[in-house]
Amino acid sequence: MLGHLLLERVSLRELQRVPEPTMAMDDPAQVEAFWECGSAAGVLASTYLFNAVQTAHVIRPGDKVLDLACGPANQLVQFARLHPDADFLGIDHAASMIDRARDTVARSGVRNVALRSGDMTSLAGLADASVDCVTCTFSLHHLPEQGSLQQAFREVARVLKPGGGIYICDFGRLKRHSTQAYFAHERREQQTDLFTQDFLNSLKAAFTLADLRRAAALLGGGVGVHQTALAPFMVVLSRPTQAAASAATRDLAMKMVSELSRAQQRDFGNLSRWFRIAGLPIPLDLD
Ligand SMILES: C[S@@+](CC[C@H](N)C(=O)[O-])C[C@H]1O[C@@H](n2cnc3c(N)ncnc32)[C@H](O)[C@@H]1O
Hints:
CATH class: Alpha Beta
Number of domains: 1
Mean pLDDT: 94
Order of helices and strands: HHHEHEHEEHEHHHEEHH
Bound molecules: S-adenosylmethionine
Low-confidence stretches: none
Largest sheet: 7 strands, mixed
Structural class: alpha/beta
Number of strands: 7
CATH architecture: 3-Layer(aba) Sandwich
């Protein structure tokens, strides 16, 4: 991996964006493959927990949180478990995803998640300044072009209370086809071929760091833009709302990390280090 990242670092090339074949993920087989990879034993579980832990300084008890493009809700359930005193609304454009999300939420036992069909570029039905926090993971790259990315962020700025919390995470555009192929295939034995293809499509459709920075400016001040070390394989946009999380949040986070398998804990540690080297520490002293 290091070899790929070093080549990314020195490469002067820029790959053209290849938009996702479809915006909403409505194909049942695709939904199933994605849900499986995000479930407790799946390849995405450690990344989802990393994202959840990163919200420790972003989501406060009593917050109303909007999760954009929640998909099958594996990530949303992690957020909701770590913040049992906040209320979450997940929206997604795909009916099959919302159906799957309802099932995930019901099975998880969390009681602080509502779900609804919705388009992140047009948050009709949500009043101005009506939510305390917005989250969104691995979904921006589904937007067809930069104009829709900016439209989505304008909507976030509209529905969010002034200075509200933000945690957005997505892939960034890499510079080399071979690095994209490396990441998509890295865990191919543990994922279906459909997921591998989906992963590759996501990396090709990712916005550049510059696109994401430009869009982040629409969210107002205080939003940090962080990438993984050496190359923007993953990019996090975050606006914290509190300096310290509660002891209860820390205990819950430690419990959730302890529930990961050994291999997943190693992945969690690697991702945390990879961001920390680039300036985004893992909260709660978990590393
Ligand atoms: C790769 S999945 C990520 C789901 C989830 N956030 C996660 O991290 O597991 C991308 C999701 O974005 C949804 N999506 C794409 N465009 C959307 C839009 N304009 N509004 C709402 N959802 C959208 C798709 O239907 C799909 O469920």
